Amino acid sequence: MFGCGFREDNTIWGFYQDSYDGRDFLTFDKETMTWVAADIGAQITKRRWDAEINDNQGWKHYLEEICISWLRNSLEYGKETLQRKEPNNSLIPVVAGVITAVVLIGGIIGVVIWKKKRSGKEPGMGGFPGFPGPCTPA
């Protein structure tokens, strides 16, 4: 799964975490553009994925640019509701939470569909959504 967000001071954050058989497998560290293995069984895949520099740069770009752009657009679409002046402002966190959840769920659905199309390959191999990676058939 993956997702992104930004704080009130406009600092951004993003994550990509892969799992296998219901357990954590690898997590992407976008600062170092390397993968963190959850256990010893993920070490072989970690070494392979760390070597995929173009894919890792693509994930960093996706998490810091594309995902944030989609989130900002979604918030812009809900701007009128979010900025409504009412005595009870409890709606603001709910709408912001729903928008964030929609972005996260969309990302999860995208990864699931993407992985189903790539059945038979290692989990997560092939780059980031919408862009082929080293294991993607030509």
UniProtKB/TrEMBL annotation:
Subcellular localization: Membrane
Short name of any one Pfam family annotated for the protein: MHC_I
Principal location class: membrane
Chain segments annotated as coiled-coil in the UniProt record: none
Biological process according to GO: antigen processing and presentation of peptide antigen via MHC class I; immune response
Membrane-spanning residues: 91-114
Topological type in the membrane: Single-pass type I membrane protein
Entry's family note: Belongs to the MHC class I family.
The protein's name: MHC class I-like antigen recognition-like domain-containing protein
